[in-house]
Amino acid sequence: MACRRPGFGLMLAGLIVTLVGFAVALTATFGIPRHWTTVGVGVALLVAGAVRAAFRDRRSDAGAS
Q: Does residue 8 lie in a domain region?
């Protein structure tokens, strides 16, 4: 799988680490139970993947014409 944009994998990894960091900080600040942290991070990653897939589909449609 060739990546067209160099460094994108590193940016995605940084986004994931940032989301996990925010989840840990919110858990500590607001006293949220730890199991909800895992659910929140999972939902955020699912949403990010869906948005990324939607933009990928839109780009491939735009290039077809």
A: no
CA angle 19, 35, 21 (to 5 degrees): 20
The answer to whether position 65 is within a domain reads no
**Confidence band, pLDDT 50/70/90 cuts, at residue 30:** very high
Structure tokens that stand for 13 in this block: 């990894």
What pLDDT digit, counting tens, does each position of 43-63 carry? 888 888 888 888 887 766 655
Question: Is residue 52 one of the residues assigned to a domain?
Answer: yes
**Could you tell me the residue range of the domain that residue 41 belongs to?**
18-58
Structure tokens at 19: 């989301």
Question: Does 11 map to a domain?
Answer: no
Task: Find out whether 48 and 15 touch, Cβ atoms under 8 Å.
Answer: yes
